[in-house]
Write a structure and sequence with these properties.
By secondary structure, the chain is α/β, with parallel strands linked by helices. The protein has a single domain (about 5-300), classed as TIM Barrel, CATH 3.20.20. It contains ten helices and eight strands. It has helices at about 20-30, 45-55, 75-95, 120-140, 160-170, 180-185, 190-200, 220-230, 250-255, 265-300, and strands at about 5, 35, 60-65, 100-105, 145, 175-180, 200-205, 235-240. It has an eight-stranded parallel β-barrel, surrounded by seven helices. Helix 3 packs parallel to helix 4 and helix 7 packs parallel to helix 8. The longest helix is centred in the C-terminal third of the chain and has 37 residues, at about 265-300. The protein is globular. About 40% of the residues are buried.
């Protein structure tokens, strides 16, 4: 089956806390990897965390965002230059962590708005900067897995079709995309079809409920999502992204204002069970079909 993970945003935004007990719990619960938020670019910190994850036998995917001071679509050339340098620094940290995929919406400034649709100039700035970053990431063995956000968090890339067109414009093998069911639930006319269109460039999937709480306890049609992943023969990583009332800075950014689940451990346990059940059901269905086909062939012979 696919490698299954969970984003550590459920516990931290900075990775400054001692998460030894949490990481051990996740390993014992059955997770294959954790999705690690990279904020600062202090390489030794991420090397230490990588060694800790190695000792636990947990694989990892990196994720990051860019604030307005590191926006590739800023009209200020010095800000755009700083954005390129900063994301290259995150690539270095991703490598130090021992990850090979860096996810996130760092194509533009998070929650930075102009009150207007994205312009051709902003598009050109971002594509040019991302191409330079992808070139560097490729030399480091890192794949960029870009994310689109909903219209309340971003105005630059807000749908699968826009992100696909962007990746094709960057036109570099180290620049690919991911799919987040939360944003898609808001922005897509048909989640399954949007996911299917992403297939040629898909390198990571985030399972996220419509209210950011326990997957499977809301409105997202995960049957359809996993069915498409099975149809396109997706072999990549799948992780849960959920947010709670802590850490408070992330709760404020995600507008989480009420308790949405019992505990992080409950969400992690139930969410993993959901993902495993969906994958196992599809695998069993495929195996059953194969057996029926083989039996029919034997009878005909």
């Amino acid at each position: 089956m696919n490698k299954l993970g969970i984003n550590l945003f459920l516990w931290t935004t900075t990775m400054e806390e001692d998460l030894s007990d949490t990481l051990l719990f996740l390993k014992q619960a059955g997770y294959d990897f954790v999705e690690v938020p990279i904020g600062d670019t202090h390489v030794p910190k991420w090397e230490r965390l990588g060694k800790q994850l190695d000792q636990l036998g947990l694989e990892r995917v990196a994720c990051s965002i860019a604030g307005p001071e590191f926006s590739l679509i800023s009209p200020d050339a010095t800000v755009r230059e700083a954005a390129v340098a900063r994301i290259k620094g995150v690539v270095d940290c991703t490598k130090a962590l021992g990850a090979t995929v860096l996810t996130g919406p760092y194509h533009s400034g998070f929650k930075t708005f102009t009150g207007k649709p994205a312009t051709e100039q902003e598009w050109a700035w971002s594509v040019e900067g991302m191409r330079e970053i992808a070139e560097y990431a490729g030399t480091q063995g890192i794949t960029l897995s870009l994310e689109y956000l909903n219209r309340f968090e971003c105005f630059f890339l807000t749908s699968a079709d826009e992100l696909i067109r962007y990746v094709e414009a960057v036109n570099h093998p180290a620049c690919r995309l991911m799919y987040d069911t939360f944003h898609a639930h808001i922005e897509e006319k048909n989640q399954a079809e949007a996911l299917r269109r992403c297939a040629p460039y898909l390198t990571h999937v985030q399972i996220s409920e419509n209210d950011r709480s326990t997957p499977g306890q809301g409105q997202v049609d995960f049957d359809a999502i996993f069915r498409v992943l099975h149809e396109i023969d997706y072999k990549g990583t799948i992780s849960i992204e959920a947010f709670g009332l802590t850490p408070p800075d992330l709760a404020a950014a995600a507008h989480i204002v009420r308790k949405m689940f019992e505990s992080q451990e409950q969400l992690a346990t139930d969410g993993l069970a959901l993902m495993q059940a969906k994958l196992e059901t599809l695998a069993a269905s495929e195996n059953g079909l194969a057996l029926e086909t083989n039996h029919a062939t034997e009878k005909s012979l």
